[in-house]
């Protein structure tokens, strides 16, 4: 008996924008610790507005901030950067799906 393989879902199949890293920081890290963005900023040595703007989704995650958050909370900087990457990609797809699906692919020989 052969297994039927199902292709992995395409990015173009995404229906909603992925979670912004600022929302993740606020909901999963700061709120459970009853910690403010200002106090975290002081702990990791960045301006408070960097984190408040990130949480408000007015700025994206930078490599510098990702490294600092990984050092402070544990985990990896890649976790934070992957959140930003998925947010950016899914936002583009949701906003321009028709443009992207109209592109006819061509494969190298």
Automatic annotation (TrEMBL):
Q: Which residues form the HTH cro/C1-type domain?
A: 33-80
Quick check: keyword DNA-binding in the entry?
A: yes
Q: Which SUPFAM superfamilies match?
A: lambda repressor-like DNA-binding domains
Is DNA-binding among this UniProt entry's keywords? yes
Sorted alphabetically, the keyword list is: DNA-binding
What GO MF terms are annotated?
DNA binding
The record ties this protein, via SMART domains, to: HTH_XRE
NCBIfam families from the entry?
antidote_HigA
- Name this polypeptide is given: XRE family transcriptional regulator
Instruction: Give the taxonomic lineage as stored in the record.
Output: Bacteria, Pseudomonadati, Pseudomonadota, Alphaproteobacteria, Hyphomicrobiales
